[in-house]
Amino acid sequence: MPTRIGFVGAGGIAGFHFANLEKIEDARVVALYDAAPEKAEAAARRFPGSQAYPSFADMLESAGLDALYVCVPPCAHQDYEVLAAERGIHLFVEKPVSTSLSRASEVAAAIAGAGVLAAAGYHWRYLDTTARARELIAGKAIGLAQGFWVGGFPQVSWWRVKAQSGGQAVEQTTHIFDLARYLLGEVESVYAVGFRGLMADWPGYDVEDASVVALRFRSGTVATINSADVAPRGAGTVGLQLYSRDLVVSVMNTGLKVQTPLRTEEALPGVNPYMVEDQAFVRAVATRDGSGLLSTYADAVKTLAVTLAVNESIESGQAIVVAPIR
Question: Does domain 3-123+274-294 have CATH number 3.40.50.720?
Answer without folding.
Answer: yes
